[in-house]
Amino acid sequence: MPAITVAMITLNEEAAIGKVMEDIQRALSGLDSEILVVDSSRDRTPEIAAAMGARVVRQFPPCGYGRAIMRALTDAQGAVTVTLDCDDTYPAERIPELASAVLSGEADIVNASRLGTRPQSMPLANYLANRCFAVLSRLVLGVKTTDVHSGMRAYRRSILQNVAFDAAGPALPVELLLKPALLGYRISEVFIPYRERIGVTTLRRWESTVWTLKRIFRLLPLRFQSHCHEQTLGEAG
Ligand SMILES: Nc1nc2c(ncn2[C@@H]2O[C@H](COP(=O)(O)OP(=O)(O)OP(=O)(O)O)[C@@H](O)[C@H]2O)c(=O)[nH]1
Ligand SMILES: [Mg+2]
Predict the structure, then answer these.
(1) 202 CA: nearest ligand 1 atom
(2) Smallest CA separation from ligand 1 atom 6, residue
(3) pLDDT at res. 231
(4) Domain residue spans in the chain?
(5) Edge-to-edge, what's the strand order for the sheet holding 187-191?
(6) How confident is the model over 100-151, as pLDDT tens digits?
(7) Any residues with Cβ below 6 Å from ligand 1, and which?
(8) Looking at the domain 4-223, which fold is it?
(9) What is the number of the ligand closest to the CA of 8?
(10) Are 59 and 75 in contact (CB under 8 A)?
(11) Distance between CA 61 and CA 10 in Å, rounded?
């Protein structure tokens, strides 16, 4: 079992995957790790990823962002899984820092927030919506975060084994952060730069907004329940 899995999901990212894989491999150099790609592409993305050493799981025809992410998180073998988009937007060189905060026991999830300041690469409407979602998460659920939609995070493996997530529908990253936070897992946040995307976005703004609100409000009952989760000390996973 590797210590670190870097997991990506891909939908027609052949223009970006070569560079993203190189950046990840450079960041992982010397670390006990694997790269996992859950792919639903019609282009050459899976062939390029496999040729560069990734373990590729095909999910075709595409069954949606949420199902692809859940498959990546459940197939990951590492004690910690670091996710990022395969579009060159996230800084792969920060992977070891995120992973080690989980492996050392400092946090159960590390959220790489894009919203320290407004990234030039993020359209104003997306930026304002993301700010509102963060404020709402704090007001409605009491969870302190600045970015509920980041695609770059480190997750302790046991969270994926112990917490149920609803993979059907968009905006799953919202639930992947807020639900563990409400259940008492320790979330920490670091700020990262967010770059211009290579290739075409798959984001559907309206659907994503509706599902973000739905996922936030659906978690409200958890705020008022007391929770206990078990952990064996000394066990990385
Ligand atoms: N396997 C799989 N991957 C998907 C699917 N939809 C999106 N992806 C991938 O999920 C990641 C995130 O999608 P993006 O298009 O970057 O969406 P976004 O990050 O919200 O939008 P940008 O800020 O424009 O990048 C990318 O690596 C996509 O290739 C899908 O249905 N199946
Ligand atoms: Mg992206």
Answers:
(1) 15
(2) 65
(3) 65
(4) 4-223
(5) 55-58, 33-39, 4-10, 80-83, 153-156, 109-113, 187-191
(6) 999 999 999 999 999 999 999 999 999 999 999 999 999 999 999 999 999 9
(7) 8-11, 13, 38-40, 59, 62, 64-65, 68, 85-87, 89, 151, 197, 201-203
(8) Spore Coat Polysaccharide Biosynthesis Protein SpsA; Chain A (3.90.550)
(9) 1
(10) no
(11) 12
